Amino acid sequence: xxxxxxxxxxxxxxxxxxxxxxxxxxxxxxxxxxxxxxxxxxxxxxxxxxxxxxxxxxxxxxxxxxxxxxxxxxxxxxxxxxxxxxxxxxxxxxxxxxxxxxxxxxxxxxxxxxxxxxxxxxxxxxxxxxxxxxxxxxxxxxxxxxxxxxxxxxxxxxxxxxxxxxxxxxxxxxxxxxxxxxxxxxxxxxxxxxxxxxxxxxxxxxxxxxxxxxxxxxxxxxxxxxxxxxxxxxxxxxxxxxxxxxxxxxxxxxxxxxxxxxxxxxxxxxxxxxxxxxxxxxxxxxxxxxxxxxxxxxxxxxxxxxxxx
Length: 309
Prior knowledge:
11 helices
């Protein structure tokens, strides 16, 4: 049961209040979001229809693209529409839904990236036992754990948000609802809640990042025993994964491991990991992966053939 009875909606200030800049924001982020949808849905369709991309790595890439699509959709469409409006409001219920979905799919992406690192470790360090260890049942179980873990994390976030009392100020200096900007509006001491936020979101981001980087160091170290061709292929895959990890975790750690203080750059950094990363991921994975590129071209060729018929 939520304690706040005085606030039924919030006002989102967005990235800017300047009318001209809001139009620029609308155009830029509409292009970004459409690019995100096109890139990730293309990867999803390619993996689903391709007979070549059947290894566990592509099974996990499918779920990464799915989480990227949903993660971006949790904030981008509203941000784009709000850029056309003079006054942007969001109801309390919609705000809580946005908090839940944003953290759910953000956390899901973290867990999928960890699973992909495990997959690469087994593939490179234990190649003879790879298909035995990473069988269909294990892959399905790992993804299921990721979804359940994400639900637990986002449920904790929404529990904290629902128990914040709001007495009057309802202007959120952000372009979407998140727990940190909401803490500034709560009419109570938020020290404990902020501590829980840092120990939850902050710890997940930091620990996961350290684990991932450590695992890739082990993987790269083990490549010295591989052939030149094997090293080249494994290195290309690992570099793609490491790039995604740094682009996603760097901004997240900056935002969620600090006390409840806001900086002018916070909104731009949030844009980078909430909208930028889901756009970059399909580009990184397709441009650096020959198998995905070939499968995408085959899909496009089939689509062209069907259209001609």
